[in-house]
Design a protein that fits this description.
The chain is α/β, with parallel strands linked by helices. It is elongated, with a radius of gyration of 27 Å. The chain starts with 16 loop residues before the first helix and ends with a helix. About 50% of the residues are buried.
Length: about 625
């Protein structure tokens, strides 16, 4: 088994050509076998096996720096740098991350998780190299989908200025998570199909090479001058006009061709784009047919690619999807926006039903928000469906373009709270904090699937910015009998007793039901309030609670700083209330990858840990 010869970085350089072909097959078999058990990013990794091998054959790690944009395609890189054994604990708590991590290996140059950062980070490495007088290579790998993000163009604009080598590998598989959209996708599509150019270029080169004595000189001159034939026919002229040398397109599954191109790219004293064509999911037929489904795969059956754990209950995303379709039927002013994730956010059905009112803007969260603001200003009712961790990228647009103008944009914030295996970069644990500081912003969180439906309908009719946050996974179907109409800024009393009051936000209502049950079993009186509104907080509810409760406990799946609990405590202090407040939150920290239920126990956000905290706080009151 050739894979056994790879024990550490640069071992791949010891293999012969036949062994390299065998290694590519074994890498795919290994990835399919491991991810079928653990889950993880499969399609993207299968697509870059040969590309990764070629990078490791040409460059020397860790001295040379490979920066993986997003990083979900770095599994082969991890194997080739001696981390094969870590795949048994991939994305598990305390185990190997599914993304590059500098603390995990010196061969991981930069921590990534969000899109379109690799060129900027690579430029930082390049300029540092020049200042420090070093001579290593810097390679930024970026997908074609990531080129829909403005940050990538900001970096390209600066990369054009440098006078030393920087290699930008454009991994073009015509996919981000879902199929790419927009002008750059169309442009790259033309390059992929420019067979006339490829044939002309090859023919001219071969003909000139046959000319005695001067042929090689002429070919070299054509390659070096911008007034040459390349100016007329090269499909990468967009990059060339920016001042960045373009090489390609190159077959991303042809290792010799990749090696030759990277060796050429190393010779240039400028930024150079190597355009590589790959097939997402290559080598596993189900992933080739359905690459979006195998982007972040759950454990699956290798024989047919079907999930092992069949979903039995609807998720919050499913509920959102259904309600969006109903809203679209009811009101022709309702429009939906996503940033390259129609499947992940549940908008695919809306897209199919109302294609003219659906907008996928690509990986461009900032644009998505300001675009929605424009739609709202023109009289439509835009709903921006976006993951909590990705909304962080559009903070200025939320503040400047939506909230200052008090425009009726609805933010459907999926994956709010702990999301699990993707780790620090994807946990949705900051949105309450960064949104609630913005004037005119209003925030709600549903306790169950029925309340998500009610809140979304309420938000669409509200005349101002409204954020609705809900977690990943199965939608809670308890407390169905509690479904009072949504009233602005008002909470919902579920159980009205005395002594201890649990005031829970969204997903924590389900946990609080268990906490209350446990407290009742040991003799405590306990009220349970569904906060509903995170901003504004229900001040009347707090005034009522302080009358006959000794302890008010706030519960939220968000960091403490800037969270709901702090707002309750601030109000209590302003009013001079002496009732004790206990804030149950996630720690003010980054939370690593792992199973959500395990992470809740580790962060003391499970019902048993919360019960102990409450009993300890209540003693002596």
């Amino acid at each position: 088994m050739v894979l056994n010869k790879i024990q550490q970085a640069n071992d791949i350089k010891k293999l012969n050509k036949n062994e390299l072909k065998q290694l590519a097959r074994e890498l795919r078999e290994f990835l399919i076998g491991k991810i079928s058990v653990s889950g993880g990013h499969l399609a993207s990794n299968l697509g870059v096996v040969e590309l990764t091998m070629a990078l490791h054959l040409v460059f020397h790690l860790p001295e040379d720096k490979i920066i993986w944009d997003v990083g979900h395609q770095s599994y082969t890189h991890k194997i080739l740098t001696g981390r094969r054994d870590g795949f048994d604990e991939l994305r598990k708590y305390g185990g190997m991350s599914g993304f590059p991590k500098r603390k995990e290996s010196p061969c991981d140059s930069f921590d990534t998780g969000h899109s379109s950062t690799s060129i900027s980070a690579g430029l930082g490495y390049v300029e540092a190299r020049e200042i420090l007088g070093e001579h290593n290579s810097v390679i930024s790998v970026i997908g074609d989908g990531a080129l829909t993000s403005g940050m990538a163009y900001e970096a390209l604009n600066n990369a054009a200025r440098i006078k030393s080598n920087m290699i930008i590998v454009l991994n073009d598989n015509n996919m981000s998570i879902s199929e790419n959209v927009g002008g750059m996708s169309t442009y790259l599509g033309r390059i992929r199909t420019a067979k006339a150019y490829t044939g002309l270029k090859t023919g001219i080169t071969n003909t000139l090479n046959k000319v005695p004595v001067y042929g090689d000189v002429i070919v070299d001159k054509i390659k070096r001058t911008k007034s040459g034939i390349k100016q007329l026919v090269i499909p990468g002229m967009l990059f060339e006009e920016m001042g960045i040398t373009y090489l390609g397109p190159v077959d991303g599954h042809n290792i010799p061709q990749l090696i030759s191109t990277f060796q050429e790219a190393k010779k240039l004293n400028s930024a150079v784009i190597v355009h590589v064509l790959t097939k997402k999911g290559k080598g596993f037929e189900p992933a080739e047919r359905h690459p979006a489904r195998f982007h972040g795969a759950e454990p699956f059956n290798i024989e047919n690619g079907l999930p092992i754990n069949k979903k039995t209950k609807s998720t919050y995303t499913d509920v959102f999807s259904t309600v969006m379709c109903k809203l679209g039927q009811r009101d022709d002013k309702v429009v939906a926006i996503t940033a390259a994730m129609p499947d992940g956010t549940g908008l695919k059905r809306f897209k199919n039903m109302f294609p003219k009112r659906f907008f996928d803007v690509g990986i461009a969260e900032e644009h998505a928000v300001t675009f929605a603001a424009g739609l709202a200003a023109a009289g439509l009712k835009p709903i921006v469906a976006i993951y909590s961790s990705f909304l962080q990228r559009a903070y200025d647009q939320v503040l400047h373009d939506v909230c200052i103008q008090n425009l009726p944009v609805v933010f459907a914030i999926d994956r709010a709270g702990l999301v699990g295996s993707d780790g620090e970069t994807h946990q949705g644990i900051f949105d309450i904090s960064f949104l609630s500081s913005i004037p005119n912003m209003h925030i709600m969180a549903p306790k169950n699937k029925w309340e998500l439906s009610d809140m979304l309908k309420y938000a669409v009719d509200y005349e101002g910015p409204m954020a609705l946050r809900y977690p990943r996974g199965e939608a809670y179907d308890g407390l169905k009998e509690y479904r009072a109409p949504i009233e602005y800024g008002k909470s919902e009393v579920i159980y009205d007793e005395s002594d201890i009051a649990l005031v829970a936000v969204g997903s924590m209502v389900k946990t609080s039901v268990e906490v209350r049950r446990a407290l009742k079993e040991v003799g405590y009186n306990c009220s349970l309030i569904n906060a509903r509104f995170i901003k504004p907080i229900d001040e009347d509810m707090i005034r009522n609670l302080v009358k006959d409760h000794k302890l008010i406990v706030t519960l939220e799946e968000n960091v403490k700083s800037g969270g709901y609990g702090e707002k309750v405590l601030d109000f209590m202090n302003e009013c001079g209330y002496q009732t004790k407040v206990l804030n149950i939150t996630l720690p003010d920290d980054y939370i690593e990858h792992g199973n959500v239920e395990l992470l809740k126990k580790e962060t003391l956000l499970d019902w048993e840990s919360i019960k102990k905290k409450i009993v300890t706080s209540y003693v002596g009151l």
